[in-house]
Design the sequence.
């Protein structure tokens, strides 16, 4: 597993890097297809923040935590990541036990929402990422694993770019472009 360290305003000592690498290598007992990982450390408002991201054969999982001690923040972020990996493995096991793939999504059409007042104009962050073909079910799982409110993906059935999102009532929505 390739581990990349990114530091933002804080230096990570070599012994702590060794500790982090050792702990990360133990993740392979849960998921042996982890290709590469990234550990981002930063310091702000009196807290160390550690974000651990893994790419496990196309499935991206992330754990993030803040604490007054960097080692504690890392340990908690890693615990969050382990929980996601276990949940993903359980999902894969359950999916393998399904005899049919006729899983239907009851995705209601969302109603227009009022525009919130803008606090800041302009784009404040831009992110580029590869669009992988997947089903809507896989996209919702990926969104949940990342802890996001929405997820953009390439629909494996139609080939179109779609988005899934969490609704206020706890369900999911699916956005599909019209021709």
Sequence:
């Amino acid at each position: 597993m390739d581990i990349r360290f990114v530091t933002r305003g804080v230096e990570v000592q070599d012994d702590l890097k060794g500790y982090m690498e050792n702990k990360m290598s133990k993740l392979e007992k849960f998921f042996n297809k982890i290709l590469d990982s990234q550990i981002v450390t930063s310091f702000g408002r009196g807290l160390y923040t550690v974000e651990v991201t893994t790419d496990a054969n196309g499935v991206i999982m992330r754990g993030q935590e803040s604490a007054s001690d960097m080692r504690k923040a890392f340990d908690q972020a890693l615990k969050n990541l382990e929980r996601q990996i276990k949940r993903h493995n359980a999902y894969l096991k359950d999916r393998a036990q399904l005899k049919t793939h006729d899983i239907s999504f009851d995705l209601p059409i969302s109603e227009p929402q009022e525009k919130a007042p803008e606090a800041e104009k302009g784009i404040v962050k831009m992110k580029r990422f590869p669009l992988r073909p997947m089903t809507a079910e896989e996209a919702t799982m990926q969104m949940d694993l990342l802890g996001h409110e929405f997820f953009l993906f390439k629909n494996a059935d139609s080939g179109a770019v779609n988005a899934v999102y969490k609704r206020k009532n706890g369900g999911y929505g699916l956005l599909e472009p019209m021709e």
